[in-house]
Amino acid sequence: MAGNNPKKTGKAPLKAAPSTPSDLKNGVAVKASFAVLAKYEVNVRVFHPNKNFEKLGFRFHGDNRGFSLGESWFSKKTPNGPTSRIWQRYILDMNLQNTGVKTNDRNIGLETESNFSDSGPSGWKILSYDGEKYENKAYKPRGTLNAAQVETPHGGQKIVRLVSHMAGENHAFLTSTVQQRVFNTTAVPTLDAFSEVFIRLERVELYMDIVSFTYGDGFPNCESFIKDSSGNKLFLGSHVRIGYPATHLWREQKRLIWGNAIRIEIDKDGNFGDKLWIFSQILGGPPDLRDEYPMIGDDEVCSASTKKPITISSLNLINENRGRFLWNCGDPGKILDEKDASKLPLYLSAFNTPLELLRGLIDASWKMGPKKKTTRSEWNDYHLHRDPNAGRAEDDPEYQINEEKWIKIENIRSQKKSTT
Predict the structure, then answer these.
(1) Strand-pair partners of 163
(2) What is the pLDDT of residue 183?
(3) Which of 100, 265, 284, 391 is positioned for an S-S bond with 256, CB 3.0–4.6 A?
(4) Residue 32: closest CA among 159, 202, 152, 208
(5) Which residues, 6 or more positions from 222, have their beta carbon under 8 angstroms from its beta carbon?
(6) Which residues contact 398 (CB under 8 A, 6 or more apart)?
(7) Contacts of 38 (CB under 8 A, 6+ apart)
(8) Per residue, what are the HEC states of 157-209?
(9) How distant is the alpha carbon of residue 377 from its chain centre?
(10) Considering the entire predicted model, what is its pTM?
(11) Cβ(281)–Cβ(260) under 8 Å?
(12) d(CA 30, CA 32)
């Protein structure tokens, strides 16, 4: 039968031999090219996009601008960049060696400033006397910075996580500086914003994972970006304000503003390339009726079946949904949903979304792959041309920003053509 008489090939059969003991093996050194541990400048700013605040902000003057990557400036320095109610910047050094408070570290160079503030037009002028330039140290905003995590898991990877806080008051308000000077406090509410920036640098594979968490009052608008040594800039996030200053600035708040996770290619000098991947894009609060979003979590009612936010004026006061603001509150679990870019951004409750939960979900999302592949240019463009009043009721044209200050020029041209 076939197989009983194997055909001779004339070759000797292979012989088994013991492998070389591991302690006698000689390794071969291979040179790997590493990206440098570079320095980056992080910017965080809160600003009001309109010419003036809302009525519940007593019509104090705003910043009259959209989201921006322009350079912050202060006082006598040439005012050729955007203004902000409070701005902060510092150096994020990937060669950082230890954790701890870095507020006064000269190598970090933390700056926290406010641009000029003044009352609104007409009858609103009685609320201020000559405005406030924030040149006196006693009236300046405060800032802190802490290195919460510094790790080198191996030679090809470095992890740094910094947490900053900025806080300040509108001292242009009549008698506020007097109160501050005499009592070391003021009745004017404090504006707070916290920012966490986590960076995992892959020095051999040449990319950087960035997670940006921002939380605080949620009013006014907020933006953050990072700049490399060549001047390339990358948005970390942008936020359209919720509520009003008269309701949402009281006490130190930690409402969710955004939580973004992106990956950006880098070169050997640590400078940003253009390829970018989005793993998570989260915004705190609802997509609509953002001006009516409540000031306390008890007034937020979450209902998965609610398609659009509803205020109390639309609710039956005798049913169980007696909260001031009803909406679906989003589902954090969708961070791990299929790779569907149409689901970005994901809107979540600004009150009931624990940061630790988000950190865990975002950490797991790295293993699932990006939800969207894009470019740094497109990502920046998205933020630069977002409607800075999106989801809010329109204000009087006298006080609201003109569209030309934020909308794309080509979009303005197409709109004009469609109306002619």
Answers:
(1) 146, 196
(2) 85
(3) 284
(4) 202
(5) 44, 45, 46, 47, 193, 214, 216, 237, 238, 239, 241, 257, 258
(6) 51, 121
(7) 94, 228, 229, 269, 270, 271
(8) EEEEEEEEEEEECCCCCCCHHHHHHHHCCCCCCCEEEEEEEEEEEECCCCEEE
(9) 17
(10) 0.87
(11) yes
(12) 6
| Alpha carbon distance 70, 369 (integer Å) | 32
Give 10-residue mean pLDDT values along the chain (420 residues).
52 62 64 90 97 89 95 76 95 97 96 92 79 91 97 96 96 84 86 97 97 96 98 98 90 93 98 97 96 92 86 57 79 84 89 92 91 96 97 93 86 50
Residue 115: count of CB within 10 angstroms of its CB: 22
Residue 13 DSSP SS3: coil
- Cα 116 from Cα 67, distance rounded (Å): 19
**Cα–Cα dist 309/286, whole Å:** 7
Check the CA dihedral 241-242-246-248 and report its sign. negative
The DSSP-derived string for 359-399 is HHHHHHHGGG--SEEEEHHHHHHHHHTS-TTTTS----TTT
* 254, 238 Cβ separation under 8 angstroms: no
Closest C-alpha to 132, from 176, 180, 98: 176
Assigned token pair, 207: 């990319």
Yes or no: say if 176 and 127 are a contact pair by the CB < 8 Å rule. Answer: no
Q: Whose structure tokens read 């900025």?
A: 166
> Contact 357/332 with Cβ under 8 angstroms?
yes
Rounded CA separation 164/90 (Å): 9
- DSSP class of 58: T
Give the type of residue at 226: I
Q: What is the pLDDT of residue 308?
A: 86
**pLDDT for position 420:** 47
φ, ψ for residue 290 (rounded to 5)? -65, -30
CB atoms under 10 Å from CB of 101, counted, come to: 10
CA-nearest of 94, 185, 87, 169 to 132 is: 169
Cis peptide bond prior to 345, omega within 30° of 0: yes
- Residue-level length of the chain: 420
Q: Would you say 379 and 235 are in contact if contact means Cβ atoms under 8 Å apart?
A: yes
Residues 133, 172: Cα–Cα separation, whole Å: 8
One DSSP character per residue, 255-272 reads: EEEEEEEEEEEE-TTS-E
Please report the sign of the dihedral spanned by the C-alpha atoms of residue 92, residue 95, residue 100, residue 101.
Answer: negative
